[in-house]
Design a protein that fits this description.
By secondary structure, this protein is mainly alpha-helical. It has ten helices and no strands. It has a domain of 139 residues.
Length: 199
C-alpha cells in the first residue's frame, strides 16, 4: 500500500512557498531554515518531508532543480501540478483528472490506494486538495524524471513544426571490401561506385 505524506497545517503550504520565492536558495532546507522563514510550529515541519516526496528537496534536504522552478513565480503553479501528478500517480491512474473529482470519489481512491482508515484518508485528502488549489493543471510541464521515464519510447518526439522539418534524405553506405592483394579488384569496385552512385 502507498503511504502519502500530509500536513496538519495545510494552510501554511502557500505562505511557505511564498517565503521560499523571496528568500535565498539554502544549501539544505532544514527545520532551522523553516524557522528562519517564520514558521516555528512543530506542525509546520511536515512541509519538509512532503516537499521531499514532491521532488523539491533531495533526501538530505538539498534543493533540487525543481526547487528553482518552485522559486520562480512564473512557473510555480505549473511545476507544482506536474509534481502532484508524479507523487499521486496511483490516484491519477484511477482518474486522470482526480483533482477535479468530488470529495467522495477522491477519498475513495485514496482509501483503495493507501488502505488507511477514515482519519488517515481525511488527512491525506486535505493535503492533496490544498496542493491542487495552488497548482495549475492547464499547462503541461515535463520534468527531468518524466523525461527519463519516456526515454524508452519507440517513437521519438519532435517539437519542430511539420512545415519546418527538413525533407532531405541522407544515406550512409557501408562497403565491405574483400581481403585480397590484387589491387585491380579494388579498382574495379571503386570504378563501379563512381559510375553508378556518384552524381
Amino acid at each position: 500500500m502507498t503511504d502519502y505524506p500530509y500536513m496538519v497545517s495545510n494552510n501554511k503550504i502557500a505562505p511557505i512557498i511564498e517565503k521560499i520565492q523571496q528568500a535565498a536558495r539554502p544549501q539544505k532546507f532544514t527545520i532551522e531554515v523553516l524557522r528562519t522563514l517564520g514558521f516555528t510550529s512543530t506542525n509546520d515541519r511536515a512541509f519538509i518531508p512532503l516537499f521531499k516526496k514532491l521532488g523539491f528537496f533531495a533526501d538530505d534536504g538539498t534543493p533540487t532543480t525543481l526547487y528553482d522552478q518552485l522559486k520562480d513565480a512564473t512557473s510555480t503553479k505549473y511545476i507544482l501540478a506536474a509534481q502532484i501528478k508524479e507523487l499521486y500517480s496511483e490516484l491519477y491512474a484511477i482518474n486522470t483528472e482526480i483533482h477535479k473529482a468530488p470529495e467522495t470519489e477522491i477519498k475513495g481512491a485514496i482509501s483503495r490506494v493507501t488502505g488507511k482508515d477514515a482519519d488517515g484518508v481525511g488527512r491525506i485528502y486535505n493535503t492533496f486538495k490544498t496542493l491542487c488549489s495552488i497548482a495549475d493543471f492547464t499547462h503541461i510541464v515535463t520534468t527531468p524524471s518524466q523525461e527519463e521515464n519516456n526515454s524508452d519510447d519507440p517513437v521519438p518526439t519532435c517539437s519542430a513544426p511539420v512545415a519546418l522539418r527538413s525533407s532531405e534524405f541522407h544515406y550512409n553506405i557501408q562497403i565491405h571490401l574483400p581481403a585480397t592483394n590484387d589491387i585491380s579488384v579494388y579498382n574495379t569496385i571503386f570504378k563501379s561506385l563512381k559510375e553508378n552512385l556518384l552524381m
